[in-house]
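Question thread 4412

I'm putting together a teaching handout and wanted feedback from people who do this every day. The idea is simple: show students a protein as raw sequence, then show them the structure tokens that encode its fold, then repeat with a second protein so they can compare. Below is the first pair exactly as I plan to print it.
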Amino acid sequence: MSKRNIELYLDTSTSKFILGVVEDKKLLKQLIEKEEKDMSKVSIINIKNSLDELNLTPKDIICIITNVGPGSFTGTRLGNTICKTMAYSLDIPIKKITSLNAMAISTNIDTIKVPIILDKNDYIYCAIYDKDNNIILKESYIDLDSLLKKIKEINKKSTFIIQKEELEKLKEKNIEKIEIVEYNPNILEIINYSKNINITKAHDIEPYYLKKVSITKKEKQ
């Protein structure tokens, strides 16, 4: 039997396990589960079971796309390690995509896209894209007020894209004039977008953590 052209997408950067299996622009399998158990054990089992269900083997995979965050430190590192190990052992290409980029790509709307991930003390991971996913504001770690000022400067209809589990927390902020939508991963769009992403060496894949830039009193003066 000839080798299949399987592309695999894995995202463990949140409490959800997200897996996509695509062949020739056709979605064969999409698995999105909220994991309360040991993510490391569940991840391997889910990948194996998904391939078995489709009568596939790891050798049918021609490329892996891994989500590098920002997100859960432990979860992101876990998913990256699994993907790196598979890519290295199978000698196949691996590509990386960020959580914020995946959120924007997955959301088909005719407004400015603002994917965000909430953090502590009103700080957020965020980026701003136009409706065609061109970057307006690069991925940043800033406070919510600073983001709202930036959106005001752009002066165009904008939409927040956020994980379901964070949706209510954001609504509690009583943000006016900005629509809020739930992030629903679109595996086909992510895989299609990845065609334009450069291949990364497996050992160079690392979790992507945006850091807040601290300003000293001397720098403020």
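The second pair follows. I'd like the answer to focus on this one:
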Amino acid sequence: MCRSIKTLANFAPPATDDEIRASALQFVRKLSGATKPSKANEAVFNQAVEEVTEAAQRLVRSLVTTAPPRTREEEARKARERARARYGGTAVLLLCVCLAGCASIRNGRTQSVEVSSLPAGARVVVDGVPGAVTPTVLELPRKAKAVEVRLEMAGYDAERLVLSRRASRWVMGNAGLFAPLLLNQGFSSYGPVLLGYLVAVAASMGIDFMNGSAYEHVPERVHIALTRSPSTPD
């Protein structure tokens, strides 16, 4: 509410009666703690607005200064700069946190891995547990450090492949996506925001790594050409 009370002295063109009364109204609202008075206080509230308006008009009209007059365009530009300094860094911070910590939402805790073979119809055994036949899609827990995939089919040699785990490129890329932007704005303006950003990103990434959503298995697609067993007749 206090930010709604604007400087009105030394303007070209001079401040209007409506501008002075608007500032007086905000001043009375601040003092009374009421945006709209009750019926019991309406008369005294309105009287205070009129008296403050008259006093403000006398003050603004009587002030003398050697400074060049202000322009509304210049004051509006300064206000935009203050708002950008006040809220811009916070907006970037929130965006950074949302992106850097959204692996749990985007990736989930499992990963789909396509498995196919030539010929098709091979039994897929995941970490010793038989499952579907190829072609199929496995839903693997991202938290697992390594996953063994084995293909078995009568008349063919069994084939084994171990899927490794790495940090998701999505997570690592988003962690540093907006850091240069914050740094380029200057530490004096965004120092606290930058510090908050680093803390928030570290916390959100810690959660993602703990629940496994920050990881991905490679390769994401598995295709194996099976070799016919030597003892198998043609």
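Top answer:
Good format. For the second protein you could add a caption like this: Helices lie at 17-32, 42-62, 72-100, 103-106, 169-175, 179-184, 187-211. The beta strands are 110-118, 123-126, 129-133, 136-141, 146-153, 156-167, 215-218, 221-225.
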